[in-house]
Design a protein that fits this description.
heterodimer, A: about 270 residues, mainly alpha, ABC transporter involved in vitamin B12 uptake, BtuC, 12 helices, about 80% helix, globular, B: about 270 residues, alpha/beta, Rossmann fold, three-stranded antiparallel β-sheet, 7 helices, disordered C terminus
Chain lengths: ~270, ~270
């Protein structure tokens, strides 16, 4: 007796969570949570850009998120401003700029709440194609850069001395984050995308003995959180995106409970 | 090693007039340096003297702004960087740390760890290692690639005093056993001397160079490290060819090759941003 739109919502959420989990591991390992947040906040500007140019919003999101990532890296390199200050400035500037630009486009009727917090129950078949097509690209890209990225995460200088092309690998990684933001926006909205990246990954830490185990555990945790969140949102009539985040946080809290005489996972 | 650099050939690595500039001043400049197979060269100098910058330029991690770095063809370098901090959130054991950029069978990993005396750590999470264990694992990691040249940036940091001497002895043993060249960076003056063939005293430029007993008597060395440092080795009188005025400028140089100056006499010449 489950209706189609609920199936679509679950498929969409699960697909995004399965991609965001492994990618989010690197966000957690590299302490890039606010970096991801800043990229996500710029997505609204990307939506506006896409609409102005008459493109699918996803392309606008990818372009603007990538541009903001490059701006961050470029400005960070000058070292004139502390990294967290820079992130704070850019993150809120991007969000405000997006809101202002959209408000100026008076001919558009946009569901702003949907963009900010997601509207998973409004997911259509076309969205599912985007999510699973884009998701497959992200996972393939991540598998491709997995080893060099891991080396860079351990120590950038060491990796570079050992022949890892640091800049190229990091550019690919940023592109993957931008793509993930584009496909995740519909599910949890731009304000909560980072939570889908970092909370399942953080929850998976205790279960994992290797980086790969953590990636798989993060994907599974993410799908579980999405399922629980969606069920909760239907049961209690709460917004679905935030409900998924709450479910993920509950799983994270559960992962912190000490286990007697058994520290770690399988 | 069949595919390594031939023994008795040209130096493993050679720099000529090497300089790195950041923010309008030279972190290092006019560095001429060679490391040959079978020798241990130690770079000492004050903090901010450019030791790590030199290592990074030598390994191609940063591009020099002046001069050249020449590697012997087919050179394989094993690098142990200064202070690696691995995020506790990253589940990583020793074997994985050692093979992340260099695939090797477990038996080889175990053999490399045995060579540095820590074979039993192979499955340990890296975050649980002590300072001494971690440095030995990193040394084994460098050995795993069968290097011609070992580049060790502060190899004894985080190691207690007794462990320090043991680690220097180990590096000396590895040099003899594997006939590799070793370039080591240290701010330590005493223990490091006994495992060193040649000392290079670096404070943005090469202040003095030579055998340990020579360098410790050098006026420039004593100026950098204080008169007590001279007791590390004794007996040798060396006439220094220049002096530094209060601004660090070289005055009265008679050798003609000290056309440089000390940027801010050590303290201000910061390490490059990481």
């Amino acid at each position: 007796m489950i209706e189609d739109f609920i199936w679509r919502a679950w498929l969409a959420g699960a697909g995004v969570a399965a991609v965001a989990g492994p990618l989010g591991c690197f966000v957690v390992w590299r302490r890039m949570a606010y970096f991801g947040d800043t990229m996500a906040h710029s997505a609204l500007l990307g939506v506006a850009l896409g609409l102005v140019l008459g493109l699918e919003p996803a392309w606008g999101i990818i372009a603007v998120a990538l541009a903001s990532a490059l701006l961050l890296v470029g400005l960070g390199r000058t070292g004139r401003i502390a990294d967290d200050t820079l992130l704070g400035i850019l993150s809120h500037a991007a969000l405000s700029l997006g809101l202002v630009v959209i408000s100026l486009m008076t001919w558009l009727r946009l569901d702003l709440m949907g963009y900010l917090f997601g509207d998973v129950l409004a997911v259509g078949i076309a969205d599912l194609y985007w999510i699973y097509g884009g998701g497959a690209v992200v996972l393939a890209g991540l598998a491709w850069i997995w080893r060099p990225m891991l080396a860079l995460t351990i120590d950038a200088d060491l990796a570079q001395a050992e022949g890892v092309p640091g800049l190229r690998v990091q550019l690919v990684f940023m592109l993957l984050i931008a793509l993930t933001i584009a496909i995740a926006m519909k599910i949890v909205g731009i304000l909560l995308i980072t939570s889908l990246l970092i909370i399942p990954a953080a929850a998976a830490r205790r279960l994992a003995r290797s980086p790969e185990q953590m990636a798989v555990a993060a994907a599974v945790t993410g799908v579980l959180a999405c399922t629980l969140g969606l069920a909760g949102s239907l049961q209690f009539d709460t917004p679905s995106g935030p409900s998924m985040v709450i479910a993920a946080v509950m799983l994270f809290a559960l992962s912190l409970v000490p286990t007697p005489r058994y520290d770690g996972g399988p | 090693m069949a595919d390594g650099v031939a023994i008795g050939a040209a130096p493993l690595v050679e720099t000529t007039g090497l300089g790195v500039r950041r923010g309008g001043h030279w972190l290092i400049h006019d560095i001429d340096l060679t490391v040959a197979r079978g020798e241990i060269v130690t770079v000492i100098g004050p903090n901010g003297g450019g030791k790590t910058t030199l290592v990074k330029a030598l390994l191609g991690i940063i591009t020099p702004d002046a001069g050249r770095v020449h590697h012997a063809s087919g050179l394989r370098a094993g690098y142990v960087p200064q202070r690696i901090e691995i995020n506790r959130v990253l589940p990583l054991n020793v074997e994985r740390l050692m093979t992340v950029t260099f695939k090797a069978p477990r038996a080889d990993v175990e053999a490399a760890l045995a060579e540095t005396g820590v074979a039993e750590l192979i499955d340990q999470p890296v975050q649980t290692l002590s300072g001494g264990e971690f440095q030995r694992v990193m040394l084994a990691r460098a050995l795993l690639r069968r290097p011609d040249l070992l580049v060790l940036d502060e190899p004894v940091q985080g190691v207690d005093y007794a462990g320090e001497a043991a680690l220097y002895d180990l590096i000396s043993d590895i040099r003899s056993r594997r006939d590799v060249g070793v370039l080591m960076v240290s701010h330590d003056l005493h223990v490091v001397m006994r495992a060193t063939d040649r000392v290079i005293c670096l404070n943005a430029h090469v202040c003095c160079t030579g055998a340990p007993q020579t360098v410790t008597r050098d006026a420039e060395y004593q100026r950098l490290f204080g008169p007590k440092a001279a007791t590390a080795y004794a007996v040798y009188e060396h006439h220094h060819d220049h002096h530094h005025d209060v601004h660090g400028n070289v005055v009265g140089a008679d050798g003609g090759h000290h056309h440089h100056h000390h940027p801010q006499d050590g303290a201000g010449a910061g390490e490059p941003r990481r």
